[in-house]
Amino acid sequence: MTKLLTLNLRRDVPAPEATPHQADLARIFDDLSIELNEGQLCGRNWEQMRVALRDDREGPAGLTDFIMTVPFWIVSQRFALLLQAHQCQCEFLPLEVTYKKTSLTGEFFALNVLAVEDTAIDLSQSKFDPRLLKHGLMRDVSKLVLKPDALTYTPLAYLPQIGQIAVQDELSKRIERELVGVKLLEPSLFTS
């Protein structure tokens, strides 16, 4: 079964906040050759990206293997190695990460999912505001249904209509078992 990759927001799990350096963010927003999660390699145009991690005030201190920021996801080296072991089509872009005044360069990466699956969602069975689909995005999703054969050719893919990463069953079990701060959501539970 295919599941959606998300953050584990349980109160007993760390939830570090990521703050990219504004000048670095402006540069990647202005560079049209950097289009993450659209099926294209971005590494040769990816320049320095500094990110400060800090503990969330409401959760326990610590780092996780999956962190969300605008405009990208951050994965730990451990998560990157797991995705590589499953031959996921991803690019891991270098980050200069600091946490509690310690440099963690080489331990975290911006995730660029190269496998993009724009036909995995069963539009006829899903419930959403159809007026917004003409722009390629599903909004006001109250019921999400994936096709039974979604992700048959790749263990992990980006679903552009909902801006989420989908993961096949075998990989999702390893993610849940081996990584911290990651949760896999049944598609039927997804809403936007």
Fold and architecture overview:
It contains 3 helices and 14 strands. The protein is an alpha+beta fold. The strands form 4 sheets. Strands 12-13-1-14 form a 4-stranded antiparallel beta sheet. A 4-stranded mixed beta sheet has the order 2-3-7-8. The longest helix is centred in the last third of the chain and has 10 residues, at 169-178. The radius of gyration is 17 Å and the shape is globular. The two termini are 21 Å apart. The mean pLDDT is 93.
Structural class: alpha+beta
Helix content: 10-25%
N to C succession of SSEs = EEHEEEHEEEEEEEEHE
- How would you sum up the major sheet? 4 strands, antiparallel
Number of helices: 3
Q: What is the element layout, followed by pairings?
A:
Blueprint: E1 3-7, E2 17-20, H1 22-30, E3 50-54, E4 66-68, E5 73-76, H2 77-85, E6 90-94, E7 96-99, E8 102-103, E9 108-113, E10 127-129, E11 139-143, E12 156-159, E13 164-167, H3 169-178, E14 182-185
Parallel strand pairs: 3-7
Antiparallel strand pairs: 1-13, 1-14, 2-3, 4-5, 5-9, 6-9, 7-8, 10-11, 12-13
